[in-house]
Predict the 3D structure of the following.
Amino acid sequence: MVTIDLSQFSNITEANEKIREYGRDNQSVEIINPDARHNIGVGLVDPITVKIKGSAGYFCGGLTDGAHFEIENNVGWAAGDNIYTGTVVVGGNAGAIAGVGLRGGEVVIRGNMGSRAGQIMKEGTLCCGGNAAFMAGYMMYGGRIIILGDAAEKVGQDMSAGEIFVGGQIENLGNDAEIVDLAPGDLDSIKEFLHRYDLKFEGTFTKVVNAGKKLRYKSQEPRHRPQPFFIHSKSSSYWNAKVQEDIWIKGEVGRYRIRGYGASKPVPHLNDIAFAKSISHVKASSSALDGVNLRTQIGGRYGAKPLDLSMPVMIAPMSFGALSRSVKIALARASRLSGISENTGEGGMLDEQREEADQLIFQMLSGRLGWNVKDMQRADAIEIYISQGAKPGLGGQLMAKKVTPELAAIRGIPVGIDLRSPSRHPDVLGADDLVIKMDELREAVAHKVPLGIKMGAGRVKDDIKIAYKDGFDFVELDGLQGSTGAASTEVLENVGIPTISAIQEAVDGLREINAADDMHLVLMGGIKDGVDAVKMLALGAHCVSVGTAAIIAGGCIACMQCHVGSCPVGIATQDKEHEARYDIDRQANNMHRFFESMRWQMAAITKALGYDDVHKVSREDLVALTPEAADITGLPYAPQHQDHVHPDDDLSTLSRKAG
Amino acid sequence: MCGIAGVLYKQKGAYNIGKTLIDMLDGCQHRGPDSTGFALYGDAKELLQLRFIVPTEELARKKAIENITTLLARHKASIDSEQSVGCSYQVSVNFDGDLLEFTKDIEEHAKLVCVGHTLDIIKDDGTAKEVDQTYRVSDFVGSHGIGHVRLATESAVRPEAAHPFWATGFEDIAIVHNGQLTNYWKMRRRLERRGFTFHTDNDSELVAVYLADKLAQGNTLENALETAIDDMDGTFSFLVSTPTEIGYAKDHLAAKPMVLFENDDMIAVASEEVSLNRLFPGQALNSTEPAPGTYRTWSL
């Protein structure tokens, strides 16, 4: 046992590096003078014991695997956050969300524990020797909570699975929770657990489980002839066949409807912007790529190794879950072939995806589905998802047909539920908590890779300032036109602001606080080609991200039925039979070629505008074609640049069959 | 989006309140690097104390101070002493008129930060240590106080948007708040109809004005805290201080953290235990986290 005096470390990062070093040597550690500091031991993946002589702050022992933490006194929020195996034993009291997102292992609080203990936990045991504050087991997906004392209001609120045993009084039950008799073996198993931790208890327990009334939507949408997106979105008035169909279906189901894809109503877009300069000196296409720099580095603000992209393009975050394994593999391969980055989205990291992609962003969402320290440590960037353009303020939705045993296992949730991910992070309830969470994530990866944030565009001017002050390396900003695999149409069409408004507000907001140009802006939501990308860069973005366009290049027929789970081309499905129709090799190449077309477009336009670097294009190169776009961006209004190609002309060809 | 801290010594005496709060706020400065503020309670002064925010640029400052002296003269408040430090201008005045009327008029024409016989509010852009360098907060001796570090989100970084906020019209009452009120505009309009004026768009100012209104109607501080929990939507942990007490209120969802430590001598409360530990380095504290939807007050 070696001793670390934390008062000698002004920076927790250095102390954690020391702890990890001892971990690699299999040497246990005693920490003195912890003084309730945050993130002690975060990122430890070796089975050593860490004894903390005193109190610890937030995220003590969080994002670890296999280690044993013993804290003599109290802990702050989120003790044992997301541990896979190992133990965290707290001698005193714990703040809110003890054992949040547990994937296994054991967290024991000998004193009382704060609100929302065990929120979104999936496996393992959280045990409290004293009383638990309100909403114990909030939104838990599995595992076991043992409370020897009393439990305050709303025990098991919105739990999907798992068990809560309360030795004392239960003030009241939460939504969709019920009391059931103990099963044979429950008591013996608890006694064995308590004995191991030397916890005394006489008496019996009340057992709380999910009542099963809210796990599935009560009404299922009838199957109907799908209306292809490009027909669907063409409506320009509010009273039409699409509205009629919508009313019919709502008359049957009595609730909001869910579909895939993004906002279909016409809103100001990059199409309403044009390049102001003449491009008459564009040279022969074969030389378009020569002498133009497209290389883009994202996220080196604080010395992390930036993403190094061959052009300012990323693949948008899309989950394994919404998409099939095969598509995630094809996307990862296409990203490697084109020298850009792939993103895991919500559903965890696949081994094949990691192998195929050279640069992979690992996304952390509110439900922590598939989130874990080991995959963090093999990611090239970490991204905190706050919200997305398709559905700002709401969590993901994955309908039961897609929640297969394989998928449920990686996410740590019950099989066959209509999965509605939480809309909020358990440990991020404001910009102040976010700072501490960011520290935890950076500790877990030893500050080696960039940390980004994904936000749906709402109050961008405020949000971007917070992101800058909180210290993110990059921001993925997603406008109203962003797509999704499943969301309610009300939110898809009506929440958020257009992508061109988002970039303008972001640039204005950063200028208001005199921010340096070191937090990189990645814009997404309706970026359909390299032309859009250059316009977005001219407006102030450092990079763009494409989801819908990539998927369409990779075989999507745009029927918008992604949420159903029976995708006929094997993209938005977990059905093996449907997935078998997906030709990974062919579609990876199609997507790769599409990205190469973006490269060609970006290079050609950059050159035509007279620059040798795509990052040199600026607002001076743009004009607005509509009064609305001019008003939003402040660009000069130049209606004479409007082309008169009918929008239908080239769209029908996009609805081609895959396979 | 912030960190809060408060401390109260139970026995009368001269304690280094300023130093204590600086240590606590420095401990949670990561929660808010933009601005820092203190509400400090010392011995009762004979004369009424007022502190204003004035521009730091010399010419503008001179003009603002001239404007304030004219205002004071209009209300027959004669200046006994004055001092201008950092972005502030402080005066002691002889005044025995109606305080509510007096402050209402002054607030309309100048950036009044606090009024009272025992309370001083010091707030400015920068960290606890930076604010201390300008204002010598660490020299302040008294019985209790509250403090705040702020990350500006909705409203701009300006000294007047920093906390604490003074409970308009009521001498010696201040609040600090961590969280976000979602029914801000609704409640603000309701209070404006009752004759209150708002000087920032900061939702925390509303907490101060709300409490002032309740106290004006003859409620006790405890009653005002109790109704605040039901009337305010959103997330909050806030602290309030008067010449003889400090209190807290916490929202029903306990969305914002708050930790409490009490021993025979003192009460210390802060967003995070790390702040409490600054007062007792190396010691494991027997702290508690107040339950959601609760309030409490402590008296000297």
Summary: The mean pLDDT of chain B is 92. The interface with chain A takes residues 1-3, 30-34, 151-154, 156-157, 178-180, 235, 253-257, 259, 271-274, 276-278, 281-289, 291-292 of chain B (CB under 8 Å).
